[in-house]
Amino acid sequence: MKNKNFSHTFVLTAFKKSKYFEKCLKSLINQKTKSKIIITTSKPFDGLKKISKKYGVKLIIFKSHKNIANDWNRGLKKAKTKWVTIAHQDDIYLPEYTENIKEYITKYKRSNLIFTDYAQIIKNKVKKNTLLLTIKRIILNIFFLGRNEIQSKTNKINSLRFGCPIPCPTVTIKKKPGKYEIFDEDYKINIDWLAWLNFAKKNGSFVRINKILLYHRIHKTSETSKAIKFGYRQIEDKKILGLLWPDFIAKTLAFFYQISYKKNIL
Question: Considering only CA atoms, which of 97, 115, 211, 199 is closest in space to residue 157?
């Protein structure tokens, strides 16, 4: 069912084979408030066309693969709506996700980035409170101070100084006409952190929906786990922290990050 007042698309990016892909797609289809859904990929897997046909969802296959950031940018270009969510293929979007996004878009007219809280799926168990989630919520609470919206560029940038507490798969962003290269294609894993930092420097507010509306799956084959294992997450952390802090502080924060990542390697 089409909602004329809600211009939103889920861009579900498929990357190689994921046994959770169909579950993610179903969670998008089963939203209480309907929006457009497209599947994009540069690394199609056997059976992907069959799945897209089964659910009547448009599949767009890119001719070549560069990296994930490039896939996301091309996916954004294919979405024809004002608001876009890059859906991650391993995750589950709860049925009220788009309903809440629509409500907050309507309420906060200056928003250009809206995000929600989330829980983690670890070994097929939903964990609503973990150390990582607690730290991210504390950071957000400090800078949002009980509000749902922050508008000043200083506050938005400061909310990103100690890491990226804004969970990428929950984010819905406002597209500007002709602006598709939102994600820096020189980055492999901290694509979202740098993108939100760039958003923070622009006019428009960050809006937080303080509700768990997504389950994010953590597993050993996820891109985040691989990035930590092979070290390029740590390299990119240092780069972005270096944009936000003097060298000594940036290196100190990066060191503590590296220690904390040991908890995320499955």
Answer: 199
Between CA 23 and CA 256 the distance in angstroms is 35
Query: Does the pLDDT of residue 1 top 60, yes or no?
Result: no
Distances (CA, A) of 101 to 42, 85, 172: 28, 10, 8
pTM: 0.90
Among residues 182, 170, 164, which one has the least CA distance to residue 227?
164
Residue range 207-228, pLDDT digits in tens: 999 999 999 998 765 555 555 5
Whole-angstrom Cα distance, residue 168 to residue 100?
17
CB 197 within 8 A of CB 240: yes
Determine the Cα–Cα distance for residues 53 and 89; give it in Å rounded to an integer. 17
- Which of 212, 236, 23 has its CA nearest to residue 128? 212
Nearest-angstrom CA–CA distance, 94 and 216:
11
What is the pLDDT at residue 131? 86
All domains in the chain, ordered by first residue: 8-219 (3.90.550.10), 220-266 (no CATH)
